[in-house]
Design brief:
Structural class: mainly alpha
Radius of gyration: 17 Å
Distance between the termini: 27 Å
Largest sheet: none
Oligomer: single chain
Number of domains: 1
Strand content: under 5%
Shape: elongated
Number of helices: 5
Order of helices and strands: HHHHH
C-alpha cells in the first residue's frame, strides 16, 4: 500500500514536468497550457502505479527465486536476467498506457477516446520495441520500468 501511495505522489509531482517535456518533444508551444492542463492524462498513471510496481516486484522476485533458490547472495547474472524479465513483463502493460497518456497530454482527449483512437490506428504498441529494449537491462526492484516517451 505504501508503494502505491508513494508512486501516486511521485506521478502527481512529476506529471506536469512530463507534460511540458511531451509538448517540447512534439514541437508544440506551451503558452496555451493552463495550470490544470499540466495534469492532463495523469489519472491512469496515478491509478495504476501500485499495480505496476507490484507486477514488477513479483516478476523480478519469482524469476530470481526460480533461477537462484539458494540462501546465499544472488549473483549478478541472475539479477540481470530477473531484471530483464521484469522489464519485458511490465512494458507490455505500460507501453499502451503511455501511448494513451501522451495522446491525452497533447490533445486533451479523455482516456477512452484516446484508447479508441489508438485502437483505430493500431498504434497502442507502436513504441513497444523502443520502450522494452532500453528499460529491460535496467529493471530492478523496487523501481518499475515505466517507458519514457
Amino acid at each position: 500500500m505504501a508503494g502505491a501511495i508513494s508512486g501516486a505522489a511521485g506521478q502527481a509531482v512529476g506529471h506536469p514536468l512530463d507534460t511540458l517535456n511531451i509538448h517540447a518533444q512534439a514541437g508544440r508551444s506551451t503558452e496555451h497550457l493552463r495550470l490544470w492542463s499540466l495534469w492532463r492524462g495523469a489519472s491512469v498513471p496515478v491509478m495504476t502505479v501500485g499495480s505496476i510496481n507490484s507486477l514488477a516486484l513479483g516478476v523480478f522476485e519469482n524469476v530470481r527465486r526460480a533461477l537462484w533458490p539458494h540462501e546465499s547472495p544472488t549473483p549478478l547474472p541472475v539479477l540481470a536476467a530477473a531484471g530483464t524479465s521484469c522489464g519485458l513483463a511490465v512494458s507490455v502493460v505500460t507501453c499502451p498506457l503511455s501511448r494513451v497518456k501522451i495522446l491525452q497530454q497533447l490533445t486533451g482527449a479523455r482516456f477512452f477516446v484516446g484508447v479508441q483512437r489508438c485502437l483505430e490506428s493500431r498504434s497502442l504498441f507502436r513504441a513497444y520495441p523502443t520502450a522494452a529494449v532500453p528499460t529491460t537491462p535496467n529493471s530492478a526492484p523496487p523501481e518499475p520500468c515505466w517507458p519514457q516517451p
